[in-house]
Write a structure and sequence with these properties.
Shape: elongated
Distance between the termini: 46 Å
Strand content: 25-35%
Number of strands: 27
Mean pLDDT: 89
Number of helices: 17
C-alpha cells in the first residue's frame, strides 16, 4: 500500500563488543535500531561485598562511542539478566538493587528511548522490581520501559501432553497485569511480547490486542524456508503479525541468522506489515489516524455544525442510499391508499446541507410520485447552502424553513417525517426530544423515518484510553470530570470483555400518553476471561423503515458505513475481573427542562460510585 510506511524493525544482540559494527550491520539490512545489553551479560558487579567491590574500573562502554542523537534513537538497552531484586537472600537482593540502580542511571544518562527486561513469574515474585521501576517512571525520566512477556507460559512447553496442570497453567498476561497495576498503569510502561512457536488461544490473543504492546520479539527459529529458500512464517504467525500491525507495533528479531542476508527477514516482515493494513475494510481505512482518539460528542442542538463536519458525514457511501431505499418504500406504501395524482408531503427535519433532501427527491422520482418537501434546519449557515441548492438543483418541490423543528408551526401535516439526528449511542444527540417535538405536524397515519433505534453497551478493557484520561486535567472542572464524560472514539487498542447488550429503545412517532424520555436499565455481563475493566463501549442500531436498518454494532455493522464511531463511557478506576465474574452496570438517562445527561455506576463485582451525578461533568443541552 503506497500510503503505508515501512515496518520498524530492530535487531537483538546477545552482546555488543563493537557497538558501531552492530549498528552498521543493522542499518545495512534496513533495521532501524538495535537491542543490546547495557552491561556485558557476564559482568556481575559486587557492591555489598566480594573481591570486586573496591575495583574502580569502568563497568561498561563510554557514552562518547556514539553521538547523543544515535543514543536517543538507535539503541534499546537491555538490563542484566542476573539482576534479582526480589531474591529472598538479603545480600543478593541488595547487590541486585545497586546494580539495577546503576543501569537505570546509565540509561537516563545516555538518553536511550527504551529499556527492556524479561519478566518471569507473577507479581508476588517481582513486586520489588515493580516498585523500583515505578519509582523510576514517576521521576523526570522519559525512557520507556518494555517489559518482555512470553506469549505462552514456558511451563507449557515442557509438557508433552495436555494435563490438568497445563490447562490451569497461569497465563503470562497475569504476570503483566500484576506488574502494571503496581506501576499504576503508567503510560511509559509497555509490553514487548515474545512470540512463541505454539500460539495461545484466540481469546488470549484478543486480550493482548487490548494492551499497550510496543513490540513483538520474533525468534529466528519461527521462520521456515519457502520453495525459493526465503524465510517465511506459518499461516498462524502471519495472521498474528497482520493483526498487530495496525497497532503500530515494532518488531525485534532475535536469534542466530539462518539465511545469507538479514535483509530477507526484514523484507518479509515489511510485506506482512503492509498486508495487515490492506486486509481491513472501508471503516478501518477511514478511521486510520483516529484510532483511540478521544472526541467530545457533537451537540447539534446547542452548537451549529461547521461545514467540514457536514462534508465528512455526506461522504458516507451507505447511509444515504439506505435512507433513500427507506423513503422509497414508505412512499410506495403511502400511495397504496392514495390516487396517482396525490402530492405527498414529506418533511426533512434537521436537513443540514441537503443529503436527505436529495435522497427524498430521488426516491420520489423512482416511485414516479409528486412530492412537496419541507426542509427544516436551524443552522443559518446551512440555510445558505440549502437556498443555493434549491435554486440550482431542488427547484420548487422544496420549501426551505429556517427554524428549530420543535418551534416551527407547520402550514400542513406531513405524510412522511425524515430525520438523521442520531449520535453514536442512538439518542445522545437528542433525537427523541427533537422528534417528539416535531411529531405534532405528522399525520395520524404518518410515517417516521427512522421508526426506532436501540443503544447497546458492553464492558471493555483499554489501557491506552485509561492512560489518555489520566493525563487530562482541567482546573475549572470537577477532578473526576474526564472519567464522567462519554467520548466518541474509534476504539482500536482494546479488548471487549463480554458481548454488548441492548440498553434503551426509542420509537417514533411516540404514542405514549405522557412522553418521558428518562430511562434506567441494569445490565449484567459475564466475564469471558481474566481482564481489567476500564469502561463501557456503546453502539446503536436503527430501523429506518420496515426491515431497512443501519447498525454500528460489531456483529451487525452495516458494511461500508462510516458515519459513526462508537461511544465510550469511562470508569474512574480500573477494576480487575476474573473469568466467570459478573459485571453489573446500572445506567440512567436523565432529563430536565434544559439538559439531558447519563449517569452510570457498577454494583458488581464491587461497588463503584455514581459517575456524573446530576450531570456535574457532562450534559447535552436542549
Amino acid at each position: 500500500m503506497s500510503g503505508t510506511r515501512s515496518v520498524s524493525c530492530g535487531l537483538n544482540f546477545a552482546a555488543a563488543p563493537d557497538l558501531n559494527s552492530c549498528l552498521e550491520t543493522a542499518q545495512q539490512s534496513c533495521y532501524e535500531f538495535i537491542c543490546i545489553p547495557l552491561v556485558h551479560p557476564q559482568l556481575k558487579r559486587e557492591f555489598i561485598s566480594g573481591t570486586a567491590k573496591d575495583r574502580h574500573v569502568a563497568f561498561t562502554r563510554a557514552d562518547m562511542i556514539l553521538s547523543t542523537s544515535d543514543w536517543n534513537s538507535l539503541i534499546v538497552g537491555r538490563l542484566s539478566p542476573h539482576i534479582n531484586v526480589d531474591s529472598a537472600i538479603k545480600h543478593v537482593r541488595e547487590n541486585s538493587e545497586a546494580a539495577l540502580a546503576q543501569e537505570l542511571s546509565l540509561a537516563s544518562h545516555l538518553g536511550i528511548p527504551a529499556i527492556t527486561f524479561k519478566l518471569n513469574g507473577t507479581i508476588d515474585k517481582n513486586i520489588n522490581l515493580a516498585r523500583i521501576i515505578n519509582n523510576k517512571l514517576v521521576s523526570v525520566s522519559n525512557t520507556q520501559v518494555w517489559v518482555q512477556i512470553p506469549m505462552e507460559n514456558p511451563a507449557k512447553q515442557t509438557m508433552s501432553y495436555r494435563t490438568d496442570e497445563e490447562i490451569n497453567c497461569e497465563s503470562p498476561w497475569e504476570w503483566w497485569n500484576g506488574f502494571r497495576f503496581i506501576c499504576d498503569f503508567d503510560k511509559k510502561i509497555g509490553v514487548a511480547l515474545i512470540v512463541s512457536h505454539d500460539l495461545p488461544e484466540e481469546d488470549e490473543i484478543n486480550r493482548w490486542l487490548g494492551e499497550p504492546v510496543k513490540c513483538l520479539i520474533l525468534p529466528t527459529t519461527l521462520f521456515i524456508s519457502n520453495k525459493k529458500g526465503y524465510p517465511v512464517l506459518g499461516r498462524a504467525h502471519q495472521v498474528l503479525i497482520q493483526r498487530f500491525s495496525p497497532l503500530n507495533v515494532q518488531f525485534i528479531l532475535t536469534g542466530s541468522n539462518r539465511y545469507p542476508d538479514l535483509t530477507l527477514y526484514f523484507n518479509y516482515l515489511d510485506h506482512l506489515w503492509k498486508k495487515g493494513f490492506q486486509v481491513h475494510g472501508p471503516l478501518q481505512r477511514y478511521g486510520r489516524g483516529y484510532e483511540d482518539y478521544l472526541q467530545f460528542p457533537l451537540q447539534p442542538l446547542m452548537d451549529n455544525l461547521e461545514s467540514g463536519t457536514y462534508e465528512v458525514f455526506e461522504k458516507d457511501p451507505v447511509k444515504y442510499s439506505e435512507y433513500q431505499r427507506a423513503i422509497h418504500r414508505a412512499i410506495l406504501f403511502k400511495m397504496q391508499t392514495e390516487s396517482p395524482a396525490t402530492t405527498l408531503v414529506i418533511m426533512v427535519v434537521g436537513a443540514g446541507r441537503g443529503p436527505l433532501i436529495r435522497a427524498t427527491l430521488n426516491a420520489a422520482d423512482m416511485a414516479k410520485v409528486q412530492v412537496k418537501v419541507y426542509a427544516v434546519e436551524k443552522n443559518p449557515n446551512a440555510i445558505l447552502t440549502l437556498h443555493a441548492l434549491k435554486n440550482d438543483i431542488f427547484g420548487d418541490r422544496v420549501t426551505i424553513v429556517s427554524s428549530d423543528m420543535r418551534q416551527w408551526e407547520a402550514p400542513e401535516k406531513a405524510d412522511i417525517l425524515v430525520s438523521e439526528l442520531l449520535g453514536s449511542f442512538g439518542d445522545n444527540e437528542l433525537s427523541p426530544e427533537c422528534l417528539d417535538g416535531a411529531q405534532k405536524f405528522l399525520k395520524d397515519d404518518g410515517i417516521s423515518i427512522p421508526q426506532s433505534y436501540t443503544s447497546y453497551i458492553g464492558p471493555v478493557q483499554s489501557s491506552k484510553i485509561y492512560n489518555e484520561l489520566k493525563q487530562c486535567l482541567d482546573k475549572d472542572k470537577h477532578q473526576l470530570s474526564h472519567f464522567e464524560t462519554p467520548y466518541v472514539v474509534y476504539l482500536h487498542n482494546k479488548y471487549q470483555i463480554a458481548k454488548e447488550q441492548p440498553l434503551f429503545t426509542f420509537y417514533h412517532p411516540n404514542k405514549d400518553a405522557t412522553i418521558n424520555n428518562s430511562r434506567y436499565e441494569k445490565k449484567s455481563f459475564t466475564v469471558e476471561q481474566n481482564s481489567v475493566l476500564h469502561g463501557f463501549v456503546g453502539y446503536f442500531d436503527v430501523v429506518l423503515y420496515e426491515n431497512i436498518t443501519l447498525s454500528i454494532v460489531p456483529e451487525t455493522h452495516s458494511p461500508g458505513m462510516l458515519s459513526w464511531f462508537p461511544i465510550f463511557f469511562p470508569i474512574r478506576e480500573p477494576i480487575p475481573v476474573k473469568t466467570g465474574d459478573e459485571i453489573e452496570l446500572n445506567f440512567w438517562r436523565k432529563c430536565s427542562p434544559k439538559n439531558v445527561w447519563y449517569e452510570w455506576c457498577i454494583s458488581k463485582p464491587r461497588f463503584l460510585g455514581i459517575h456524573n451525578p446530576n450531570g456535574r461533568s457532562y450534559t447535552i443541552g436542549l
